[in-house]
Amino acid sequence: MAKLYIVGTPIGNMSDITLRALETLRNVDVIACEDTRHSLPLLAKYDVHAKLVAYHKFNEQDCSDRLIEMIKRGQNVAIITDAGMPSISDPGAEVIAKCHSQGVEVETVPGPTALATAVALSGIKASGFTFLGFLPEKSSDKVSILSKCANTGLPIILYVAPHDLTKTAKTLLDVLGDRTVYVARELTKIHESVTMTTLANFECEERGEIVMIVDSVASENPLNSLSVAEHLNHYLDLGMDKKDAVKQVAKDRGIPKNEVYQQALNIYS
Questions:
Q1: Signed CA dihedral, 233, 238, 240, 241: sign only
Q2: Could you tell me the residue range of the domain that residue 226 belongs to?
Q3: Is 204 found in the same domain as 138?
Q4: Phi, psi (5° rounding) for residue 167?
Q5: Measured between alpha carbons, how far is 107 from 127 in angstroms, rounded to an integer?
Q6: 19 plus 51 within the same structural domain
Q7: Do 193 and 259 reside in the same domain of the chain?
Q8: What confidence tens digit (pLDDT) does each residue in 57-74 have?
Q9: Element (H or E) spanning 224, and its range?
């Protein structure tokens, strides 16, 4: 019976593709690519000639249905992205979930990911971590997500576009306080590097494909040393609305929301 193959591809160095990935790609009928133009050099290098179909975030819904119909007609389909594993901050989850719900067999052919590679390169002791992928564009959404991760005691890992690097570091400092941060860039490529610095002293060149690893802190949230009013104003100044700010302050301080809400009324009445 035909199936969907989730195939990992290199994140920078073409030599990192696995033998099993090559065998799979050479034997499937169709390869769904995030960007066919990006995938062609890799496929040509390794003599892969399957039919290519574009599968990306703008056509995931419709294309997923087409791919499943192909599989049901007996065609084996592989899904790949520009780099790494499908569905990890990349397209793929939609068609995979639909296959599971419709009883279509799915097989994984694992490969490298920037996430795991950066963690290994940084040297942090990570028995666990919080992976956020790319942060949302809206400032208040960034603050909300980061605030929920502030006191987990786990490192936070982000994918960052080079032009967003400096402002992302500023947002991290505002929400999390000063922490050690590792900036891994150009992973597996000739200019691969990792830089260790702090959010307060952050100065890194905005270039390359970047993974940021923000170290955890064992100490109490420094915002709790503020008054409740100052604590509220901190989140409001970052763009959070009053309701969410009240909830976050209550969570940070371990006190009832109505207690924070009452103080908010006193401040803004």
A1: positive
A2: 222-268
A3: yes
A4: -70, -30
A5: 27
A6: yes
A7: no
A8: 899 989 999 999 999 999
A9: none
